[in-house]
Fold Targeting protein for Xklp2 protein.
Amino acid sequence: SHSKENDGFNADSLPVLSSTTDPKLETELLSPSRYGGIAFKKRNVTVPKPFTFEVREMEVLRKRKLLVEEAEKRAVELANSFRARPMRIGSPDSLPTLPAPSPVRPMPFSFRTDDRIDQYRSRGQGSFASDASTVQRTRVKSPSVVHRPPFVPQVSIRSPLVSDPPKLATAERAVQRFKFDEMLRRRRLSMELKQRAIEASRRAEEEEQVKRLRQELVHKPQPIRRYKTIRTVERKPLTQAKSPNFSLRRASNLP
């Protein structure tokens, strides 16, 4: 809202902001509180200049022509660089002769078993000759077994050994199996007893329900209802309205 002084606002009366390079002066001129209105300044209008695309298009066409000329020149150079070799006249060169391989000639060979047999035989002949020479050098003794008493076995002083029976795993497993079967039997028996108890309780509950249902289905007559006796009211004549006598005069004074 403007004051009364600003009611007759005229834009022509405001000063026009001239081009200046001083930012402080420009801020003062743009301040709306100085002139009591809206500050403004004249804006520069963009003036379009004449233009054309002919130069750019000509440059593009020139570059395209250069590319085409370079491609043609490269194709001509590639075509001129190929040189075909003339065909040979006459028969082609024959393949080089290869030397014939010599036939395989088996070479004599010997097994290692034959060598070991020869070594064993030579060793046996040497040991036989050494044994014969040792027999000739040694002196033969008389047999002492003939003069000694015969062997008599003696009774052992130690108590005979009693072998312990072997502990087989089958016996231990049998005991474990027996315990397991006993535990399984007790568990089955307890489960059977529980099942029987559950069935007995269910049967008793069903019997109780049937009994209750039968009792409910039996017809029971309701007793005669008793009510309070009705009080009889005596018949009386109707009340005759009688006006009150508000006079102070006695009946004797009445005419």
User: Anything to note?
Assistant: DSSP finds five helices and no strands in the chain. Residues 1-7, 15-20 have pLDDT under 50 and may be disordered. The first helix runs from residue 23 to 30. Residues 246 and 254 are 14 Å apart (CA to CA).
